[in-house]
Amino acid sequence: MEGDAVLDELLELEHQGWTSLCDSAGADFYGRLMTPDGVMVLAHGMVLDRDAVVASLDEAPPWRTYEITDERLIPLGDDHAILVYTGRATRDGDEPPFVALMSSVYTRRDGAWRLALYQQTPVPERSGR
């Protein structure tokens, strides 16, 4: 049961994060959620520390829709866990959907889950679609 509760908590944080990206509030959300030394490893090959994430999200166009599927929890003890899932998001316009395998490493500090590492691996488009 403990694993299910942690999965639910971390999935809720991921949904809050994606909602903030749809509402152009990602800079504030991730500025609060990330650990001071946290990083994001993004699909286009960049590694951003927390300050760079906040600055980049201030300028990022919003996502219109998102979907989280195939979620899986990897517990690393009582206060650490990895959430792995497939994310699919779309923006307005003709841009194709962004689909990636995503991993979020969380650590519990002062009773709250904080994001220490987020990583994206793009899923290539299948031909014939």
Automatic annotation (TrEMBL):
Which residue intervals define the domain DUF4440 in the entry? 11-115
What the entry lists under InterPro entries is as follows:
DUF4440 (IPR027843), NTF2-like_dom_sf (IPR032710)
Listed SUPFAM superfamilies: NTF2-like
Domain of life the protein comes from: Bacteria
Task: List the signal peptide residues.
Answer: none
Against Pfam families, the record matches this protein to: DUF4440
Q: What is this protein called?
A: Nuclear transport factor 2 family protein
- From which organism does this entry originate? Microbacterium jejuense
Taxonomy, top ranks, is: Bacteria, Bacillati, Actinomycetota, Actinomycetes, Micrococcales
